[in-house]
Structure formats: structure tokens, C-alpha cells
Design brief:
There is one protein chain. The protein is an alpha/beta fold. It has three domains: about 25-200 and about 340-455, Alkaline Phosphatase, subunit A; about 230-335, no CATH class; about 460-550, Arylsulfatase, C-terminal domain, CATH 3.30.1120.10. The chain is built from 18 helices and 16 strands. It has a ten-stranded mixed beta sheet, with helices on both faces. The chain has a four-stranded antiparallel beta sheet with strand order 13-14-15-16, with helices on one face. The chain has a two-stranded parallel sheet with strand order 3-12. Helix 6 packs parallel to helix 13. The protein is globular, with a radius of gyration of 23 Å. The two termini are about 40 Å apart. Mean pLDDT is about 95; it is low at about 15-25 and about 545-550. It binds 2-deoxy-6-O-sulfo-2-(sulfoamino)-alpha-D-glucopyranose and calcium ion (CA). 2-deoxy-6-O-sulfo-2-(sulfoamino)-alpha-D-glucopyranose binds near residues 38, 76, 197, 467 and 468.
């Protein structure tokens, strides 16, 4: 059904030509956006990872385009999802941090596709605190979602699905495709919970990495020298902030089955009290996650983690602080990579299904994550910072009718580019208020950076004070440099030479040799802020604080 809200554009010549059509309008492509939660490029073999093999994701890269430089404007779940849906930065779509409620009445690309006759579905982690709009079918995880027997809200009804979340989401995706109307194109958001914290593997992947020893990042034992208070004062250190019980599954079955009183006592403003309360809450959270398994699943789980628990009790009082970080890092990687295995297999399952029904080559298949993640770099887990490991996100695009196989692009891409790209590829005129840029010229040129392409990407993170204590900041990343301003309760700048110092260990902001580049970047940053309408971050955030305090 077509409505007047959507304006049609001629399908771009390049797409029409590559689709091999002779005069007639090519068939509109199906679209599948595969998104994971916290899957970083350091854990994808097509991006050069030595941590894990991802043959099915590698297949997408081999048969499509890999973006080396795709960035998110705000490295956290809900905001990133809102950016993708709207093609707009957080300040423009209103969803600046995870406590927000997405204004679902606003324009999104699924709505535009739906109005243009696409069958639309949203399956998996939504995390926007309001019901999805613009979908024929939606089945979303409740909140962050659970790994075992996950709860969903499906077209408004709450249900529990037995099984492992990554498998269940794929089953639902295939079921949607099975019952679709094959005469019309579809657009499906296939959004995983995996590999979000606390990294619980599927039953068939328990213990698979037990014998593996993971290479450590060079800055695993970073001491933050030469950087500001934001890097020093975060709460995402593997050594200090990763809970052995919840994150590394070091809880005996007897304790997991116990009823655990959640006494939140003491002065919540004191750091030690807050930490003790958080720790107790994490144990409760693990008990609840564990309770969702069947007795067979629990038995297999207990057996798989028993050796790790025994080792922990044997060594925990003997480890130096550095040895503790290194030991925890190894356990973290074993679980994280086992969870990735589940993602990769399911991506393969969905690709095989598309092939079987003859739709694979008619479908634009995109793989991305809501942001990157720290896998021990700087001694951290989690994300939020504008540092490279989490500002950058993986992006693969397979569509053989327009995108060359095995191509790579260095173009500075952003996840706000996806909405205009899909809209254009569906033959709809890209609305003028979308702030991202269509990637069609990049996709159809073998990855070449088009003339007049952006030379810097803008970033702005807001969720502070909150989980992991990452201070508010904004900044710009160009092909060679990164400039960051931490603000709100501090006023600190950082400048990194991304070519000489790709791991962002040496802040050059006060280096006299960088005076010219610093001035140039500050100007470029201000221009970007003006262009995207984020002109006074400090003031707006102060207003937000006042609003939040009034709630
Ligand atoms: C949970 C996690 C945090 C994580 C946020 C946001 N804690 O609160 O570690 O940063 O989600 O993640 S947990 O103990 O509950 O696992 S996001 O990807 O949804 O933004
Ligand atoms: Ca995330």
C-alpha cells in the first residue's frame, strides 16, 4: 500500500545498471540489518582478529564490502539504535542516553519503507523504551534481554521463548520470512542481544575455548599516564570493576540456587557502599539469569564452569593485581568469543535460508553492531568512550547486484548513513532532514571515497553520571587525528595522532608541535557542531540535568 507520505526517487543509475536491468525498473531490494550488541571489530576475523574465527561474517566481507572506518555518533545501545532508525544524531532524535524514551512518532527508515509497500519486521533487542512503530511484525526482547528462555513482547503481548536467545531470534527471523508475501520486498531488523554482558554462551559452546590462550592487547595494563581524569576515573577496569561472580560465572551451583537477600544498605553516595550494593545486585542478577535455564541446561552449565571455579579458589589469594587482570582477561575472552560463535553460526543459518529460498542476492544484507567494545584495551571492558575500540563499529554490506565482492572502503562512514542508504536503495527520495549521507556512491564505486565526502565524524556521549562513570564528551575524528573535549564536571581536551598512536596512549593536546593541527581541528569541530545543530552541548546538558533532577 502506498501513501502520500513517501516521495519516490528514480532508482540511482548506478544501482539500476549494476542490477543488470534493461530499461525496466529493477526489482526493489529486500533489506536485512543484522545488528549485534557490543560486537567489536577486534573479534571478527575479517577485520584481522586473532581472537576468534567468524567464517560466516567473513563470508559477508568476502562477498561484499567491509568498511574499515565506520563510526557511531554516541557509543551506547539505545542512542545508537535511535541514530540508525532516524539517520539523525542523538541531539536531533532526542534519545541521548539509555534512560530516555524514544519518540516513536518521528520519522524512521522502517516507516518510510513500510509506507512504500515493504513488509517490515523488528526482531530482537530494541532497547528504546517505547513500542516499535512502522513494523508489520515486531517481537522485541524485554529491556536488555536474557540469554536463556528470553522474554519478548510480540506485537504487544509478553511471551517467554525456551532456548538460547541468539537461536530464538534467528528462528523468529526465519519464521517471518516463511510467512511473508513473496510478491513484495521486505525489510527486517534482526537485532541480537549477544554478545552483551554478561556473555553467557549457548549450551553447545560451553567450554569450547577452555584450552585457548588469548593474545593480550599491548595496553592491557595501561596506567593512564599522560591522559586526563576521564580515563583515570572510569569504572570499567577488568581488574577492579569486572565482577568475578556475575561476569566470569564464578559462583557455585549451591549459591546460584540460594535465595539471596538484596540488602541495599548504607550511604549510597559513598563509593565503597555503592560498590558493595552493585556487587550484591550482580549476584542477584546472575541468580535470575541462571534460574531461566532448564535443569538439563543447568547441569551442563555447572559441569562446564566447575574447573574455572576450582581454579579461582585455588589461585585468587595468590595473584598480584597484574596477574589478576591477566587471568580475568583470559576468562572474559573465553566467554565473549564463545558467544560470538553463536552469532556467527546464526548469521550463517540465516544466509543459508535466504539462499535456499532464492532471495540472498536480492537482499541488501548489512552486518553491524550498536558500537564497538573494549576487549582489554586500556585494561577495560564496556564502551561509551570516543576511543577507537568503541567509537568504531563493524560494517559489512553484501548486495552483489551493486556491491563488488571482497571490496573494502576507507571512507569515513557513520551509522546515521544507513537510513538514507536504505531509503535511496528502495527508490524513495531521501528526506532532507536526515543527517547521515547515503553510502550508495561508496558501495557502487568499489569503496572509493567520493569527492566532497565528509572529512571528519562527530561524536557526543551524554550518559554521566551513570554506569561505568564515563564523563560526558564530544569531539571529532578525521582520517589522521582525534580531538576530544570532556566537559560537564571537567574541562579537559585530548588530541591523538591516530597514525602514530592508534591505541590513543599519548595525549598531544598541550604539545606545542601540535598547535596548528589543534587549532584547525577545533575549528572543524565547531563547523560540524554548527552544521548538525549541536551548538551548545554544555548548556543543553545542564537543562537535562535540571529536568532529570525534577523527575
Ligand atoms: C548494563 C550493563 C552495563 C552496560 C549497560 C549498557 N551492566 O547495565 O555494563 O554498560 O547495560 O549497555 S549489567 O551488569 O547489567 O550487565 S548497552 O549496550 O545496553 O548500552
Ligand atoms: Ca551495546
Amino acid at each position: 500500500m502506498l501513501t502520500c507520505g513517501v516521495r519516490y526517487a528514480a532508482v540511482p543509475l548506478s544501482l539500476a545498471a549494476l542490477a543488470g536491468c534493461r530499461g525496466e525498473q529493477p526489482r526493489r531490494p529486500n533489506i536485512i540489518v543484522m545488528m549485534t550488541d557490543d560486537h567489536t571489530a577486534q573479534a571478527m576475523s575479517c577485520y584481522g582478529s586473532l581472537l576468534v574465527e567468524t567464517p560466516n561474517l567473513d563470508r559477508l566481507a568476502r562477498e561484499g564490502m567491509l568498511f574499515e572506518n565506520c563510526y557511531v555518533p554516541n557509543a551506547i545501545s539505545g542512542p545508537s539504535r535511535a541514530c540508525i532508525l532516524t539517520g539523525k544524531y542523538s541531539h536531533a532524535n532526542g534519545f541521548t542516553d539509555n534512560s530516555r524514551t524514544f519518540d516513536g512518532d518521528q520519522q524512521t527508515f522502517p516507516k518510510l519503507l513500510h509506507e512504500a509497500g515493504y513488509q517490515t519486521a523488528m526482531i530482537g533487542k530494541w532497547h528504546l523504551n517505547s513500542d516499535p512503530q512502522g513494523f508489520d511484525f515486531w517481537s522485541i526482547l524485554v529491556g536488555q534481554g536474557e540469554y536463556y528462555s528470553p522474554q519478548f513482547i510480540e506485537n504487544g503481548d509478553r511471551i517467554v521463548e525456551p532456548g538460547y536467545v541468539t537461536d530464538v531470534i534467528t528462528d523468529k527471523a526465519i519464521a517471518f520470512l516463511e510467512r511473508r508475501d513473496p510478491s513484495r520486498p521486505f525489510a527486517m531488523l534482526y537485532y541480537h542481544k549477544a554478545p552483551h554482558r554478561n556473555w553467557m554462551p549457548a549450551q553447545r559452546h560451553l567450554g569450547i575455548n577452555d584450552d585457548r590462550v588469548y593474545p593480550e592487547p599491548a595496553n592491557l595494563l595501561d596506567d593512564y599516564a599522560g591522559r586526563g581524569s576521564a580515563a583515570r576515573e572510569q569504572a570499567m577496569e577488568i581488574g577492579r570493576d569486572m565482577w568475578p561472580e556475575w561476569d566470569l560465572k564464578l559462583l557455585e551451583p549451591e549459591v546460584l540456587e540460594q535465595s539471596w537477600e538484596l540488602e541495599q544498605t548504607g550511604d549510597a553516595n559513598r563509593d565503597d557502599v555503592k560498590r558493595a550494593n552493585d556487587w550484591r545486585a550482580s549476584i542477584r542478577q546472575f541468580q535470575s539469569a541462571y534460574s531461566r535455564m532448564t535443569s538439563e541446561e543447568k547441569a551442563r552449565w555447572n559441569e562446564a564452569y566447575a574447573p574455572r571455579i576450582a581454579e579461582w579458589h585455588r589461585i585468587k589469594d595468590t595473584l598480584s593485581p597484574e596477574e589478576l587482570v591477566r587471568w580475568k582477561y583470559q576468562q572474559y575472552m573465553k566467554d565473549y568469543c564463545a558467544v560470538i560463535q553463536g552469532v556467527d553460526e546464526n548469521v550463517g543459518r540465516l544466509l543459508d535460508y535466504l539462499e535456499e529460498i532464492g532471495e540472498l542476492d536480492n537482499t541488501i544484507v548489512v552486518y553491524t553492531s550498536d558500537q564497538g567494545f573494549f576487549l582489554g584495551e586500556h585494561g577495560w571492558f564496556d564502551k561509551r568512550f570516543m576511543y577507537e575500540e568503541c567509537q568504531r563499529t563493524p560494517l559489512l554490506v553484501r548486495y552483489p547486484k551493486a556491491v563488488g565482492a571482497g571490496t573494502r572502503s576507507k571512507a569515513l562512514a557513520m551509522n546515521i548513513d544507513l537510513a538514507p542508504t536504505f531509503v535511496e536503495m528502495a527508490g524513495i527520495e531521501v528526506p532532507a532532514d536526515m543527517q547521515g549521507r547515503s553510502l550508495v556512491p561508496v558501495l557502487t564505486s568499489g569503496g572509493a571515497v567520493p569527492d566532497e565526502w565528509r572529512t571528519g565524524v562527530y561524536y557526543h556521549y551524554y550518559e554521566y553520571p551513570s554506569w561505568h562513570s564515563v564523563k560526558r564528551h564530544y569531539g571529532i575524528r578525521t582520517a589522521e587525528w582525534k580531538l576530544i573535549h570532556f566537559y560537564n564536571d571537567v574541562d579537559e581536551w585530548e588530541l591523538y595522532d591516530m597514525q602514530a598512536d592508534p591505541h590513543e596512549m599519548h595525549n598531544r593536546y598541550d604539545d606545542p608541535a601540535c598547535a596548528a593541527v589543534r587549532a584547525e581541528l577545533r575549528e572543524q569541530l565547531e563547523t560540524l557542531q554548527r552544521e548538525c545543530g549541536d551548538t551548545d552541548p554544555d548548556e543543553r546538558v545542564t537543562e537535562f540535568f535540571q529536568g532529570a533532577a525534577a523527575l
